[in-house]
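anyone else get weird line breaks when pasting these?? whatever heres mine. first is seq + tokens for prot A
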Amino acid sequence: MTAPTRRAAVALSASVALAATLTGTVTLATPQTADAATCRATPTLLSRMPTVTQLAGGATARIWDTGPTPSNPQASTRIVAVTVPAASAANPRVRAAANLNTARIPSAYFLDAPTAVVMVNGGVFNPTVGAMPDLPQMTSGWLRKARSTHDPAIVTAKDGRSLPSRLWITGSVSATGHGYKAVTGLNWQSLSGSGINAYTPSWGKARRPYGTADVVVAGGKVVAVRTGTTRGQTAASGQTILTATGTAGSWLASFRIGTSVSISYHASTDAPFPVYEAVGRGARFLNQGVKNGGTCTSRDELLRPRTAIGWTKSGDLLFVTASGRATVDGVRYGGATIHQMADYMAKLGSWDATNLDGGGSTTMVARTSSGKVIRLDRAGTEWQRAVPNVFSAG
């Protein structure tokens, strides 16, 4: 089946935005906020003629830029939309750092991805826990982080299909003479559910949550049962550490060294295809053409950098950023409110659209048709935040 048919089968479309170089960072005294009951009007920037740049893989970048606005720095806006056509061989991909406690800048991921056409920052993460992603993560068919809760994620298939969906873990631990228990967490930042939580080397080197006992499994056998201060160690290569509280914790504490243990789990999803990769997402801006612009509360009404992914009815994939030039106490402002971003995604042709991490994380890097690597949302020389994962085409 051809790429266009695969993507259109789930009513997906992608359009990606490309932006010209931003210049001049402006420092303000205080950020602007809106009254809780008032929505900011959506600027008419998209009604202007964009700057168009041809990218590799048949993708096209369109950039709308107000330029500097000295009298109101937060009004300075740059919208980049990159459209990856359904026929493109540049399938959506999720790339991630070596483990869940490390991060890299988007440009570093891009330079290690010679087939990538466009790349944006991925899901929300906790920088105080070594850049731990807040939500599920799956790369190259390898489930690295999930829990039994149905968490929001962008999921992709190996054949190029993708959509905003939900992902959760399904699995069990069985032990000779002990029966079995459900797996309710994998490399999660807190013990999840009433079942077994598993930790693998994907967690990284940081201390991790632990329950009543830590059972270390290698080669299908229990090699250690840890209690007291020995709990919380990270898994070595070839090991899986099982831990839990309550009834499940007592069950694990009854294991003995040498006990045969079988651990199995997989990613479950609402998507109509087997999941190959996944990255945590935010709220949906559009769901089958219906806009969700948030509540227009003061937080939603902040003009902040935003990153979004859209799918058109014809199967194109859209990578979109909205950025500004204002900096307040080291925090980036300017860009779009939540409801403005929903308006922009609709005007750009999205049928479905969802949010990724924003603010200082918002970054878009692309490869031109001549092979040159450029940053689109800001000037190429500007600071980039290290992030635990990225979403790309190609």
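and prot B, same format (seq, then tokens)
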Amino acid sequence: MKKLIAAVFVVALVFLAIWTVPYWTHGSREVIVTGVDHKILRQGDKVKDVYLVFTTDETYKNVDSPAYLKFNSSDIQGKLIQTGRFKISYYSFRMPIFSMYKNITKAEKVD
């Protein structure tokens, strides 16, 4: 019984660590947006919009995120279509091997 409790505890800790990674990998910076793209991913009956934002340094994604209560990715993308210099806030990290991008949570035009 003690082994079962220990195993459940370890699994819960691992799940908690994985779930909270985006919360301690957030940041903000100024970037120069050079272009944007819109991808539609279909899996059976489900459809998901994925917006990509290209900058001079790296590529970001812009998707809705219930964990961050972010449901305005299309509005943010509308701002970024203008291209130019923006201050963006983001979370997560870039892992090219898994095609993972930092997710933009906020974008403001900088003059």
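btw re prot B: Residues 85 and 111 are 7 Å apart (CA to CA). The first helix runs from residue 2 to 20.
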